[in-house]
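Reopening: structure tokens for the adenosine monophosphate complex, inputs below.
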Amino acid sequence: METFKSANKITDRVNTWRVAGKKVGFVPTMGALHDGHLSLVRRCLNEQDICLVSIFVNPTQFNEKKDLEAYPRTEHRDLEMLRENGCHAAFVPSVNEVYPKDQREYGTIDLAGLDKTLEGEFRPGHFEGVVEVMQRLLHIIPCNVLYMGQKDWQQTTIVNHMIRQMDMEVSLIRCPTQREKDGLAMSSRNERLSKEDRKRSGTIYRVLNQARLWAEKKKPREIEASAIEYLRGAGLTPEYFKIIDGDTLEGINEWGNERLVVACTAVWAGQVRLIDNMILSGQPQP
Ligand code: AMP
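Re-run output (same inputs, fresh job):
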């Protein structure tokens, strides 16, 4: 596996692959890799000629400085995992490499309110940071296909919107969420859960499944209220549980003819904030 720290060098390398007719897949990550990340890497390896992974803890998407400082950094182990899985290249830049002082600012993009709901309500500025870094990374890595996780539903929706707004020639593939045995979505944050909170956290997956069943009888708002109660009853502190149109991210008041209906939730388990979602009906594209 080739490892790059320099943005210019990796751009050159990607361009040589592209000129040689190779399809380049890109998996952006913030490191502390787990099997969820690796599922994206494996899919990329299966579908593209080249799989390139970035490991970059993006400072602009953290609204709390202490979260940025506390973010786990396990670069050596991450690179080993990528190597073992057959990844072709890793990009491990410094902050200056992605945000060079002399570089022009990227223009803002109209996110059509997609960044204001769900996570956006609780993490102001978070998606501006995500869009900023994704523009920069896609500029450095002119890939054919981008692999991102469904676990971050809103993030994939916003990045897809950005790609369309900017007329970028890249397609985004939204990959299914990998889960622990009890259904808890894999996340580097799970390591920080106490034993009791770890046990309680399995409820998030159970309530999402329950929401699917409730959808046969209850109205969206009733499901949201029941889910909040269910989570609280299990000793968790839900921040939101929302039933949304999976494309526009708008809340659904009455069942109608939405193409895609998704339940999204953010929950505190002790000091750890967890997010998850589940498609209640419809098929995501692609
Ligand atoms: P992160 O390092 O948290 O920024 O995540 C990098 C990518 O991995 C994002 O596209 C995430 O959506 C994806 N990802 C994180 N956790 C999972 C999971 N449990 N299953 C599938 N993809 C995931």
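The first strand starts at residue 2 and ends at 4. Residues 244 and 252 are 5 Å apart (CA to CA). Marking as resolved unless the reporter disagrees.
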